[in-house]
Amino acid sequence: MDWHCYKADVSPIALPEYNRWLDDFDTEKYAAFDMWHGAESEYDDYRTVAQQSESDRRLQNDEDFFCIGKHIERDDLGKQDVAKWIAETVEDLLPLYEACHGK
C-alpha cells in the first residue's frame, strides 16, 4: 500500500486520510510485512514491522507517509502460488485501506 504524491490532485482522499491507517495499527498482525517511509528508495532492503520500534513508525513531518507490503525474494520466485500469495496479501491489507477511506 502506497501514497502516490503525483496523483494527489485526483485522489479521493488527501494525505491525512491516507495516514489514518496508522491510528490503530496492529503490529502483531502485520509483523511480517515490510514497512518504510515513502521517501525511502523503492530498491532499499526494508525492515519488517517486527524489526522496528514504535519510534521507527512515527511520521517525520506533515508530508511524510509510510508504505507497507510484502516482497518475494528473487530466489523464492516460482516456489509458491504467486496468485494466492497476492490475493492473501491484498486481503491482509484491506483493513488498512478501509481505514484510509473511513470505513
Protein described:
- The chain is α+β, with helices and mostly antiparallel strands.
- The protein has helices spanning 15-18, 82-100, and strands spanning 34-37, 66-69.
- A two-stranded antiparallel ribbon has the order 1-2.
List keywords for this structure.
103 residues; alpha+beta; globular
Topology, number of strands: 2
Main beta sheet strand tally, sense and closure: 2 strands, antiparallel
The assembly state of the depicted protein chains is: single chain
Kindly state the percentage of residues in helix: 10-25%
Radius of gyration, in Å, reads 14 Å
Strand order of the largest sheet: 1-2
3D shape:
globular
Structural class: alpha+beta
Q: What is the terminal-to-terminal distance?
A: 16 Å
How are helices and strands ordered from N to C? HEEH
Number of domains: 1
Number of helices: 2
Mean pLDDT across every amino acid position: 88
Unreliable segments of 5+ consecutive residues = none
Strand content: 5-15%
Organism: Neisseria gonorrhoeae
Keywords: Oxidoreductase
EC number: 1.1.1.49
GO molecular function: glucose-6-phosphate dehydrogenase activity
Write the layout of secondary structure elements.
Layout: H1 15-18, E1 34-37, E2 66-69, H2 82-100
Antiparallel strand pairs: 1-2
Task: Summarize the entry for a quick read.
The chain contains two helices and two strands. It is an alpha+beta fold and 103 residues long. The radius of gyration is 14 Å and the shape is globular.
